[in-house]
Amino acid sequence: MENQGTININGVDFPIEGERNVLEVIRKANIEVPTFCYHSELSVYGACRLCMVDINGGNIQASCSTPPEPGMVIKTHTEQIRKIRKVNLELLLANHEVSCPSCARSNNCKLQDLSRRLGVDEKRFKKTDKIRPIDNLSPSIVYDPNKCVLCGDCIRVCKEVQSVGAIDFTNRGADTIVGAAFGKSLNEVECVYCGQCVSVCPVGALTPKSETTEVWKALHDPSKKVIAQIAPAVRVAIGEGFGMSAGETSMGQVVSALRKLGFDQVYDTSFAADLTVIEEANEFIKRKAEGGPLPQFTSCCPSWVKFTEQYFTDLIPHLSSCKSPQQMFGSVAKRILPEILGVDPKDIVMVSIMPCTAKKFEAKREEFIHEGEAEVDHVLTTEGLGRMIDEAGIQFSKLEPESLDLPLGFKTGGGVLFGNSGGVTEAVLRYASEKLTGKKIEDHHFELVRGKDGMRVATVKLGEVTLKLAMVHSLSNARKVCKQVMAGEVDYDFIEVMACPGGCIAGGGQPISFETDFKAKRTKGLYKVDTMLQLHKPQDNPYVKELYTNLLGTPGSKTAHHLLHTHYHGRRRITNQNLVVRDTAAHKINVSVCVGTNCYIKGSQDILTRLNKYVVENKLSDRVGFQGQEEMVDVKATFCFEKCEEAPLVSIDNIQIEKATFEKAVEVLERQLEKYKMPAE
Amino acid sequence: MIDVATKTLEMVTEDYKKSIESITKKVIICAGTGCIASGALEVFEAFKTEIESQGLDVIIDLHKEKDHNKEHFHLSESGCQGFCAMGPLVNIYPDKVLYVKVTPTDVKEIVETTLMNHDVVERLLYKNPTTGDINRNHEEIPFYKRQKRVVLGECGYVDPEDIEEYISHGGYLAARKAYAEMTDVEVCQTILASGLRGRGGGGFPTGKKWEFARIENNEKKYVICNGDEGDPGAFMDRSLMEGNPHRVLEGMMIAAKGIGADEAYVYVRLEYPLAVKRMKLAIEDAMEAGILGENIFGTGKTLHIHVMEGAGAFVCGEETALMSSIEGKRGMPSPKPPFPAKCGLYGKPTIINNVETLAAVPLILRNGSDWFRENGTATSAGTKTFALTGHVANTGLIEVPFGTTLREIVYNIGGGVTDDAGNVTGEGFKAVQIGGPSGGCLTEAELDLPLDYDNLIKVGAMVGSGGLVVMNKQTCMVQIARFFMEFTQNESCGKCVPCREGTKQMLSMLDSVIDGSANQRTLDLLQETGEVIKMASLCGLGKTAPSPVLSTMEKFRGEYESHIINKVCPTSNCKALAVITIDAELCIGCTACARKCPVHAISGEKKQLHTIDPLICTKCGICASVCKFNAVIGF
Q1: Chain A closest CA to B502's CA: distance in Å?
Q2: Could you tell me which chain B residue has the CA closest to the CA of A169?
Q3: Range A579-675: architecture per CATH
């Protein structure tokens, strides 16, 4: 690096080495200047005014937004500076809802920490703000404006890192709060529930939605068998809440703690990740052989899936049809455990422990709830489990490690890698390389797919086949790749996407870390777990093999599809807001007519009116033998089937009629009606 | 070869001269916002009707009437002439008569006396309230006589909606000079040499700002005219945009040439509909005349100017917030550096100048930088406009050279301090609040201080946008401080902690001083909070938000202390601190107050002295309003 001069910090010279601001140089001097709104990965905002320093004797500037210049003389804690910081904190505290004892972020709150550090020992200012309502309607994230310090970190991470922009400042001046457009709740907008806003929030304003109450309830119910599955990334982070360092593995302690909490069986989501690899790789090999659609995108990350459904509906067919490991696990467990454990399926409560806030949303997706029965009943985040352990008084760091239960607790290193960016790809390669070449591979390491860049590419030759791979994390990078794919600029075969920077290890449900290198440490931790395990290739997992032998048959079989695969739907338009025209108690036949703009223009309104009239005037129930009974046809106006080019669209009992006419619709309706015809007496 | 636009300038001037020669009399009616509010448009209509009914020829639109052989009376509207307190104002040329407070009923007399007979209607002339002298016109009225109207010069004389009138007064010659005869370096150097400093508040040398943007190597650059005048009581930018929009445009053209910009924005607040209308019209007319747009004065240079209406947030007067607003983002400031001259609107080099600054530019090019320096002080060249309001006889818009003393402004131009009833009193002066919500107050001790950028900073005030509020001895300084603090608190954009949270707390503390619940610690904390906001806020508006409080605390500390220690408001303005009593001499025991008191705090027998129980009294004031003998005292 060329010599860029030095700056003097509290009497000692430090070289300028390309830092973009004075704050970075000061950090190099091992001085922690307090900040709320500065994140090296985000744009400079300059609003918290805590990083103020004295430059050249008397010139007081925010160090985050001042470029370093050679010869600068910086003092970081003059009397004035100390006064500024202290008064600033006092001002924030005045209107902050100081509910520390009951706050999820107590002991890990910057405001609390700095107030103590900077010696704020009295409350001189009065509360001036009104109490504002809390948004807790989303399945994943809770926003409490009363605790918010308006640093804007959440807004910038959502916009800059994730390119979603679901939230921004709303209202003017002193009334400013963070919120979604038009004062909507997070569950009504484009939020993908990744929880990165939670990760950067310095206080307890944004927190994962807690499900501990529900889990405690299940644990207290003696009739229930409470089953835990632990996601890969949890094991290298949960210890941070108990004094361990980032990346240190504590799987054994987690197992022990879960048993002590009362869980009946403790399993590993990595088992299902091994299963995912086999299903996803076979799906990919099939697509490759049959001509697409390629690239195939991974679908393990629910934020990424929702992102695709919202912004890139054309790419939905490119998503792997595989369920995520969490859902595969739930699906398989609920299928096989009743027999193994000898319990009524209804009494199994599946709890997953995830590094992720979006997994809460995923578990509640309608695709994963069958006849009212969810594949996964409750999702705890890593920090949520941490709080349960705390509450139970279990001294985590003193626990003797325990082993997971079999069979679903057995995994290979491949399944564990799912928590790192590049990990899914590597695990798939470990499988595909043997599958495609028919030979055993000696070296299961695929270093070329590892790395921390947000967008990496690799070309791998497996036997006769050359594969072009891309590994992407952070949704802003995913957006770039999607655009490239849409524009035909790239010809990747397989693209792995994880919404969170670095992968699940930095998920929104993980313990909050203010360390600068926590991601690297957690990543390293997971690779270490892989090394320590005896098996590394998913196909070597004996219990996965057994599952295929006993239940699934072959990868991609009918049973496998039924249990392990799913489908997605576009979310570009209004969904779940059907206008019910006729609602019958019998609920036999569902007629939905799209009244979205495109269909409406092409006459759907007329079809809707005529169909409804037809149903009423022809007494359809009578015709099929339900004399005198209630009507049996529901008629709904819906919005957008995402097939506007085929407008107008009518759907009758999930049979989609493209370019529908009234006559076509009646024909299908009559056909469906036949099925309900009562046998003639 | 001469270009089309230059030719236009020459032709228009020629035509105008001919038209003007055929005019017998010219009646100019001030149509600034102040005069319009007092009925100037009705006066205008009355003139039109009256002149016509006398069988005379009225010309409103000069250049539409090409029959130069006839005698005409030219009736025209002007922008703000500044003497708003005396509006509607009517000027008659060549008689050089100024009539004040004219109503439509006066018009007949004016037409008959002055227009037809060259006589003067004496009752409509300005009468000096102190001396009783009658003044015929600007040259005699002290309000005008003591001013130096340079930037405002043509305001109040030319018709703002008539480009030809502007041109015929030498308009756009400076722009022609900048484009056709000068290099960009020369333009910047001329402005730098003139010593012109930003009129918007900060006082940064304009030439330097331009030079920073000029040296940026970028194909796209922007000029922004900041017309987001948000200070309560300040209206000089509005008057310029309404009164002489072409001068502002010309200034923008010169700036664009100086830095190499081809696109410009006029950012005007929505609450100035007339300014928006006139700026838009001016742009249209200049485009049509071939002065603005493509190939300016045959040089191949381009400039397009847009008018952008701001939604009225005070903070959008701050340049980075203003640019965010133009970009369609939330109007909030961002840290500097990067400075706009390097990375401004849409990331391109941008200069942002205040309206008044830009309006001075064409004059500097026309007359030279030495001419500009003839007025003002060594560090603050030229003249400055102020909006003179408050307890002063002559309120309005004034322009004086930098270095003029407060005494001159308050006593000579302003005609002296008035009491609450509006009468001029000899010794009523208490203070002047200068610079609006960002400024501070000046007291009797500073009456002879030459006003310029640096002197004002030294005494804890600032030129700011130029609001100048005179306060008499009956004014409570805590209330004044509270007034400005409420304004800044309301207008704080909410971005940085010190300003957002600090102003809320300062306002709440001021309230506690006013209601008597504060103590010595409150004052200390008020001071400390103010100092932190000043040092730590992100933008200039935040940094100066505590100024009115800090300044009044410094200069009128006793008044604050009286509120908190003695629980007395020395000027009896703070109702909560008022001690309400009934005067034993004046009370006749009529029982009116006791009967009306909603809380039954007043007792007393019929025809006996009544008394108020201070523990019950809510100080609602009903007793005082019903007492016919003014016996209730303390309000």
Answers
A1: 6
A2: B330
A3: 3-Layer(aba) Sandwich (3.40)
The nearest alpha carbon in chain A to B538 belongs to: A47
Question: Which residues contact residue A31 at a Cβ distance below 8 angstroms, ignoring those fewer than 6 apart?
Answer: A9, A10, A76
User: Is B325 part of the contact surface with chain A (CB cutoff 8 Å)?
Assistant: no
Residue B633 is predicted with a pLDDT of 85
Distance from C-alpha of B107 to C-alpha of B47, rounded to nearest angstrom: 6
Query: Cβ(B254)–Cβ(B281) under 8 Å?
Result: no
Closest CA to A357 of A242, A195, A487: A195
A89-208 CATH choice from 3.40.50.620, 3.30.70.660, 3.30.70.20, 3.30.540.10: 3.30.70.20
CB A652 within 8 A of CB A665: yes
Domains within chain B, CATH numbers bracketed: 18-142 (3.40.30.10), 163-373 (3.40.50.11540), 383-475 (3.10.20.600), 478-566 (1.20.1440.230), 578-633 (3.30.70.20)
- CA B596 → CA A273, B591, B601, B625, distances in Å? 83, 9, 10, 10
Helices (H), B432-581: 453-458, 477-491, 497-514, 520-536, 540-544, 547-555, 557-561
Residues of chain A where predicted confidence (pLDDT) is lower than 50? 1, 681
pLDDT tens per residue, range A291-315: 879 899 999 999 999 999 999 988 9
Q: What is the DSSP string of A570-624?
A: --SS--S--EEEE--SS--EEEEEE-SHHHHHTTHHHHHHHHHHHHHHTTHHHHT
Name chain A contacts of B492, Cβ cutoff 8 Å. 173-174
**Predicted confidence (pLDDT) per residue in B395-405, tens digit:** 889 999 999 99
Count contacts between A and B (CB, < 8 Å): 102
pTM for this model (two decimals): 0.85
For the beta sheet containing B58-59, the strands, ordered from the edge strand earlier in sequence to the opposite edge, are B58-59, B72-78, B23-30, B90-93, B97-99
Residue type, A306: K
Q: In CATH terms, is domain A6-77 a member of 3.40.630.30? A: no
On chain A, the residues whose CB falls within 8 A of the CB of B330 are: 168-169
Between A46, A60, A124, which is nearest B335 by CB? A46
On chain B, the residues whose CB falls within 8 A of the CB of A170 are none
- At residue A107, the pLDDT reads 84
Starting at the earlier edge strand, list the strands of the sheet with A12-15: A12-15, A6-9, A73-75, A52-55, A59-62
Interface test with chain A among B332, B505, B513, by most A beta carbons within 10 Å:
B505
With beta carbons less than 8 A apart as the criterion, state whether B310 and B265 touch.
Answer: no
User: How close B498 comes to chain A (CA, Å)?
Assistant: 6
ipTM of the complex: 0.87
The per-residue pLDDT for B577 is: 85
pLDDT tens per residue across span A538-551: 999 999 999 999 99
Cβ-defined contact of B493 to A60 (cutoff 8 Å): no
Q: Is A498 an 8 Å CB contact of chain B?
A: no
CA distance B103 to chain A (A): 43
Q: How far apart are CA B26 and CA B55, in angstroms?
A: 17
Annotation: CATH topology of A213-564: Rossmann fold (3.40.50)
Catalytic residues of A: 280, 283, 300, 320, 359, 362, 367, 504
Domain locations in chain A? Answer: 6-77, 89-208, 213-564, 579-675
Does residue B619 have a pLDDT over 90?
no
Q: Does A24 touch chain B (CB under 8 A)?
A: no
Distance from CA of A106 to the nearest CA of B (A): 22
∠ Cα B565 B566 B572 (to 5°): 125
Structure tokens at A535: 């098996």
- Does residue B606 have a pLDDT over 80? yes
Tokens standing for residue B396: 């309005």
- % of chain B with per-residue pLDDT over 90: 64
* Any B CB within 8 A of A128 CB: yes
